[in-house]
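# nightly structure sweep
# worker-07 picked up a monomer target from the shared queue
# config: single-sequence mode, recycle default, output format = structure tokens
# input follows
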Amino acid sequence: MEKKQSGSLGKLAEDFVAQRLAEEGCKILKRNYRTRLGEIDIVAQKDGWILFVEVKARKAGSMVSPLEAVTRSKQKKLLLAAGQYLSENPAPWQPRFDVAAVYMQAGRIVKMEYLENAFTA
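# output follows
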């Protein structure tokens, strides 16, 4: 799971983040939005924002932070996918790109860091 998260652990992390967002008053609009331009793990809405959330999971104690895994190349793909989403689903809210870093140990979530406005267009 160091470089690429396995399907079940990645889904566990995404489910956890989506649940936390909902508990904090976010409306989940879409999960795993896929386009040929890229993929967005979670699309949510809160207040005046439409949130495009990238979820990254790593083993606790990993040498590479999940936040570091969102490279410039990945950011570009997220921006393109968000543009496609907004062209298909026009929204009056301001876009925001967040990253959720989920740390796991023995198949369980032990910590989450959530970075709002992690990068901009």
